[in-house]
Amino acid sequence: MKFLEINGSVVTATYLYYSTETGQLLDYVDHEYNHRSAISIANLVLRCQRVHNNIPTAIEDAVKTTGKKKMDDDKICVICLEEYQEEDMIGTLVCKHIYHDECIKKWLKVKGRCSICGAIAFRLTPPFR
Q1: Three-class SS string for 33-71?
Q2: Cα(12)–Cα(35) distance, rounded to whole angstroms?
Q3: Domain extent for 50
Q4: 14 part of a folded domain
Q5: With the C-alpha atoms ordered 22, 28, 33, 36, is the resulting torsion angle positive or negative?
Q6: What is the pTM for the complete model shown?
Q7: pLDDT tens across 43-85, in order?
Q8: 40: β partners
Q9: How far apart are CA 5 and CA 13, in angstroms?
């Protein structure tokens, strides 16, 4: 998104427009906002960016990584459907479900929940200042 101020009271925002049905890029769109609305939008974008930047740290904190898997009922990672090997790094969530460390971290970037029980893996507190 790009902001361009005109006459000090109207702001034009240029952004990419995507189809909500297909996700396909359609075109650039120009939209005019009054100054107060544009400042509110810019602040919202900055807050969202700060929250987004905190996701990798939150995921690292949510997954306990160990080098060896305990032999129990879980023989395969339910994300990649591959058997655990002795040298695999294992990621365990607070709900005690286990996965390949790399698999669960990729999963959490998209879903944010345990793929087995649906427990929330981490919460982000947006910085509103």
Answers
A1: EEHHHHHHHHHHHHHHHHHHHHHHHHHHHHCEEECCCCC
A2: 9
A3: 1-55
A4: yes
A5: positive
A6: 0.58
A7: 777 777 776 677 778 888 889 888 766 656 678 999 999 999 8
A8: none
A9: 9
Number of domains in the chain: 2
Q: Specify whether 51 is located in the same domain as 67.
A: no
Is residue 107 a part of any domain in this protein? yes
In a shared domain, residues 6 and 47: yes
Cα 69 from Cα 88, distance rounded (Å): 8
Nearest to 9 by CA among 41, 40, 32, 34: 34
- Residue where a domain stops, chosen among 11, 38, 55: 55
The answer on 67 and 37 residing in a single domain is no
Counted residue by residue, the chain has a size of 129
Nearest Cα residue to 58 out of 113, 115, 99: 113
The pair of three-digit structure tokens given for residue 35, joined into one six-digit string: 């100054």
Q: Are residues 36 and 10 in the same domain?
A: yes
Residue position matching structure tokens 């952004």: 15
